[in-house]
Design brief:
Structural class: alpha+beta
Radius of gyration: 24 Å
Strand content: 35-45%
Strand order of the largest sheet: 1-7-3-2
Number of strands: 8
Oligomer: single chain
Shape: globular
Largest sheet: 4 strands, antiparallel
């Protein structure tokens, strides 16, 4: 009889552990999806979205250029500033965004090619803040 009780007790404990793991697996992705794309402690540049840009004209091609052509808006949020949001539309060539942090660390985005609008977030801290941010023409 005690052997049966021990096995039942062990099964109850195992069932409790399995239920706790199942709850963690269900709740963890939901909380991770609700979090901001780049948490305050993460550092670097994360691409948030990419959408095709509007065409130049019906049947028209963009004029050839030696350098890239783009428009970027940057938004810095205070207090901090711990991060900067980029929205960039690239019309020709290719560019990359960069963030320089107060500790001297420099982070670059991936290559942004012509024909799309990109949204990114560059994060330095806390405790470090964004010193400088911008874009570079690659070609």
């Amino acid at each position: 009889m005690t052997l049966v009780r021990r096995r039942l007790g062990g099964l109850r404990a195992l069932t409790g552990v399995l239920v706790a793991l199942a709850c963690a697996l269900v709740l963890l992705p939901a909380s991770a999806a609700a979090a901001e794309p780049a948490a305050a402690g993460d550092r670097g540049i994360v691409q948030l979205s990419k959408t095709p840009a509007a065409k130049v004209g019906a049947g028209e091609k963009a004029p050839a250029r030696a350098n890239a052509s783009w428009v970027c808006n940057r938004q810095v949020t205070y207090p901090g500033p711990y991060y900067v949001d980029f929205t960039c539309t690239v019309y020709s060539g290719a560019i990359r965004a960069y963030v320089v942090c107060s500790d001297g660390a420099v982070f670059y985005s991936g290559t942004m090619y012509a024909g799309a609008t990109y949204q990114m977030r560059g994060t330095c801290g806390p405790p470090w803040t964004v010193s400088t941010s911008g874009e570079q023409s690659l070609w």
